[in-house]
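Q: Glycine dehydrogenase (decarboxylating), please. Structure only.
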Amino acid sequence: MNNPCIPLGTLDEFVARHIGPREDDIEAMLALTGHDSLDALVDSVIPASIKGSSVLTLTPGQGEAEALAALKGIAANNQLYSNHIGQGYYPCHTPAPILRNLLENPAWYTAYTPYQPEISQGRLEALLNFQTLVSDLTGMEIANASLLDEATAAAEAMTFCKRLAKNKAPAFFASRDCHPQTLDVLLTRARPLGIEVVIGDEAALEGQPLDGYFGLLLQYPASTGAIVDHRALVQRAHAAGALVSVSADLLALTLLAPPGEWGADVVIGSAQRFGVPLGFGGPHAAYFATRDVFKRDMPGRLVGVSIDRFGKPALRLAMQTREQHIRREKATSNICTAQVLLANIASMYAVYHGPQGLAQIARRVHRLTAILVQGLRQLGHHVEQAHFFDTVSVVTARPLADVLAAANAARLNLRLIDDLRVGVALDETCEQGSVEALWQVFAGAGQALPDFAALAADGADCLPSVLLRDTHYLQHPVFNRYHSETELMRYLRRLGDKDLALDRSMIALGSCTMKLNAASEMTPITWPEFGALHPFAPASQSLGYRQLTDELEAMLCAATGYDAMSLQPNAGSQGEYAGLLAIRAYHASRGEAGRDVCLIPSSAHGTNPATAQMAGMQVVVVNCDERGNVDVADLQHKAEQHKARLAALMITYPSTHGVFEDVITRICDIIHACGGQVYLDGANMNAMVGLCAPGKFGGDVSHLNLHKTFCIPHGGGGPGVGPIGVKAHLAPFLPGHGHLPKQQGAVSAAPYGSASILPITWMYIRMMGGAGLKRASQLAILSANYIARRLEEHYPVLYTGENGLVAHECILDLRPLKDSSGIGVEDVAKRLIDFGFHAPTMSFPVAGTLMVEPTESESKEELDRFCAAMICIREEIRAVENGTLDALDNPLKNAPHTASELVGEWAHSYSRELAVYPLADLRESKYWPPVGRVDNVYGDRNLACACPPLSSYQDA
Ligand SMILES: *Cc1c(COP(=O)(O)O)cnc(C)c1O
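A: Structure for Glycine dehydrogenase (decarboxylating):
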């Protein structure tokens, strides 16, 4: 009984929760690959030249409860002040039903980007609502499905104007009344493209010629609060052939004449205050809206209405040919992962409140601000704006330092604009007490406070009468029927039920690493200690965040072998951009500013060439051989040919083909010998953590996708975090920010980008420990090789390493089947839906193939279920090949099959059973797609990107 040797142990060891296969499963899987241990398998997968380069300490992880407690301790070092800083970030209420049924609901947050529309109708509808919300409020004809943040959206607007304006002058005018962080990112993005940004006072443009500008950026209301009538300026800009972009506040637009009504060509901004917490700067959805004539040039993803094969309305991502993954070095934007989850929160906020509710919130904020201002004037302060919405700037009657000290004592943040002025912004969460607390801060000793009731009775508002909104918005029924909680809850459930996310089955998306997003990792992101911090509050209030980011940077350095890390980029694409800028700045610091050639293998992800383009580099494509590997002779030749101008090589490792190329160290040596730097795209880091380290085997800089390898959920297409790790020599060139000590320009609006989701990765690493992380990589490799072995007799596995093994993903070649059966990769992808599976990555990096990445989180049972589906599909293809199934009327060509199709007249040459229950266990649990196969061409020809009238659904 009393054996003293029984160790206490941890009760809730996380590693075994995160990793799917059990011990005996692992043995069986290893046996199939012909190895007797994980170490032996990995030993044959990882090339000798990089083996052992990992510097990760193999410590054990912490239990879930223990790690959460540790993080709670860190969070306690953040101070919760009342925030009146404004400047693009406003406290708001996340409606509880949206918090619980959307933000905290895996049906929403574990979904992938909606590239497979038939299993994505729910989130596509939510995004269509977002687009409708934005185009209605801005008064524009078309809006996209989100961008990364307001500042990068402004940068996209700048380059958009440059492409489309008649005026080909080199300069862009940006109002000094834009948010400072917007101007900062604008300058960063303009420099490599040779765009001159002129920051100035638009009032001073009066009477000045505008021919020198291809475009303008104005802010409405201004960053410090004023509402200015820009109509005459817009007319003059148009007369000069320039385009006008406006950064606008969506809440203010419920009361003010929208920019679309006074001539703006582009309207951008943030949807944060529609229910998304401050989160120390992000993630938040930015928006981008424009005129119909410019729609084909819009950056980012666009949801459009099309029809399915029964003619029923169905949604899908429209005009994908505009996107970076197609246009590559001709791309005009590199945005890939966006902010879908946050856009969906904002859209549901509008669905829940409706047009009257939103206007009511806006009017209340404005009234409180007007009362506040009257009181401040009574107290003798000079409020600069005659017309404002919710923000003003104040020249204080008593010393500014005294006011700031009083604000600090009252635990309240104001915006310090300059030596003379403070800014004050109110928001949805403010009430009478907030206004009185502010008066108290501004009042001198012994000064009587204004009488709130008396001022409130007075009732005047301070919106300019010439710019009052007199047009309707959000008239569509979707914004007018879900105002009770019961109705909203069911709407969210209905939409969630239409989609296939990780809460239903595995999503084996090569390159995208759809692994477990554990509940314990997700829990902290909605703690107020992380959610309620303003990114520009004094640093003394965010010591908890500082500890979190310091520790996370150290963890990620240990995982990659790099010396320094920047957490600022809010997607992988932004990390690529920050990395290439660091390389350029490094070369320039050595007097080699002329180095501007970027070598990129033909197999690269589309964001690589798009990013190089944005960084002002010239892309030179390097060939790949028939095995999918980089053609080293071609690489050597091109590196030497461009030796004098070689800036960088961008290379993905393990390769986009899912193989550890053993020549990687030689490739890095060739580039270094020619004076270039190696950008190692770290999207495939899930094959390497704990096994080998890019920072030690030749990389100078890499981005990581925390939303792939490090457990941040995909959110249906964002948020993401794309930190970059660099070797020491590049550390001085990491992104800076007005609120960071570093000197370089910013790439994101907030100093730590999408700060509030960093706890997810911190929790993951802390709970796994170095040992668990290494095991995760080993299991990811084992699972991919297991699938490759199980499926290779049915589908050829396209690329393997020297030893016949793959890394953490494998490519199934379906091209030969097209000739023998007419069945293509898309048919197989759609048929998988009938089996309840999301398709693997289609036609990347090789057209006509499927790239399967199972990840370590899937159990052997789930892997087997997937293999069974793929094998069953292969049998169906064989039946088409030998004529047992009709060449055109077969379950593959007609997939996916909907429930309503079954109850109609059955006109097919195969049975209903074969259509929907091809495997017996589907009778136990079945996913029913809400629409049949979606017609992309129809939707692109008849482009509609806002909520269609309800009649169009009823007619069909
Ligand atoms: C996902 C991915 C990217 C882009 O990352 P985002 O976070 O979507 O911007 C870049 N390269 C590769 C290889 C990828 O798989």
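A: Brief note, in case it's useful. The longest strand covers residues 213-220.
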